[in-house]
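Researcher: Here's the sequence for the chain we discussed earlier.
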Amino acid sequence: MRQVYGLAIEGHLDLDAVRGLIQCLGRYPVGSCVRLSTGEIGVVSRPNLADLSKPALLLVMDGSTPCRPPKPFDLAEQPTRPSRAIVATLDPRQIGIDPNHVLDSLSA
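Model: Thanks. This is the structure I predict for it:
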């Protein structure tokens, strides 16, 4: 989404249309892989329409240790310290994560 927004800011895409798209999909669409400020890696499981920067996640890596099963974590409902924040989006193929498999664990 960051790249799409950048293209809109540069005038390559309609800014209002991109803002509408982001409102519909969320800043981090479900299935996005993200790195947190703590080094943890998560998969977005639910957007937060009140604050698009704080979706619900399934944590799949705690540093270099896999979380089995994935641990639910809601960025909007975290205690103030230590505060976790998304610092990067990741390509799931490069880190060996299948977001669909992770999201399927919600229904298991």
